[in-house]
Write a structure and sequence with these properties.
single chain; alpha/beta; eight-stranded parallel sheet; disordered N terminus
Length: 365
Amino acid sequence: MPASSAFPGETPSATPGPTPAPHLSVREKAARMLVVGFRGLDVERDSWIGRAIAEEGIGGVILFDRDARSGGVRNVESPAQVARLTARLRALAPDRRLIVAIDQEGGRVTRLSPRYGFPDVASQASVGERGDAAVGAWADGLAATLAGAGIDLNLAPVVDVNVNPDNPAVGALDRAFSADPAVVARDAAIEIEAHRRHGVRTALKHFPGLGSATANTDFGVADVTATWRDRELDPYRALLASGLVDAVMAAHVVNGQIDPNAPASLSRPTVTGLLREGLGWDGPVITDDLQAGAITAAFGGEDAVALTIEAGCDLLLFTNQQIFDRGIVARTVDLIERLVADGTITEARLDASVERIERLPSRDG
């Protein structure tokens, strides 16, 4: 059944969320679909990211601790600095919701870490089999850190089933709770509930399952056609049935059992067919990084944007990590505007995404 957007204690509602404001132009709707990374410990109104927020109206930003290209500090220096940065980012969009996202899984994927004065966060693998109380304490501390820093969307938990412990993208990095789908679902539910208590939303990843992969999608297309099993969907089924899903991340993974022609993030049979029509999810879907090697090597940038929107994704993620591009916002918005003008994508398709994005409550709502 479709998931509710209610926090614990709220009454789930089957009614659709607010429709996009009628005054939004195609360009503004396109901008709402972008989540973008940037460099800087602070933000100025006249910087490229400041203008992207205040003038173009992008939907969100994503923070990183280190820059992948230079290795230098990117957006994180201290707890006080991050809280100040997130407040200044939101001040650039005073009349609307601005998503401030991060990858804070724990373990090796921890952007707010002790090196910057934040609490240590164990990996999902290390807490996955320790029982509900241990997982609950771990998740509460993680979520409290994010809330204090002004983060309102965590691109976690990882709900991949640890099918291949040597998987360089998941198992080898201790990113999965367990090889048992039931344990994955139970621990993820505990983590999501902790986030919601602190006013932080989450995104399940990596749909439809990256646990059996033999390659890291940051560097090449992972093909799980021969290794993926239907039980890797069990955590999604359980969490959707419980009403605990806020958003889902579509992975850069080819699964020929579902679609042999495109990775999940660019696949209509995967996003619209399996996730939306098959599993009943009608909330936001976010892509993995559209600048990742898995996409840039196999698809042109413009084709990837068109395909991911046609697939049914709502939030397009450009981390500006592997490729740093200050022009990514204007160029992508221009592209989407052209795709609508030439009939490749309908404006109604953009409306559907904006409506789903608006259904993702802010940390204050």
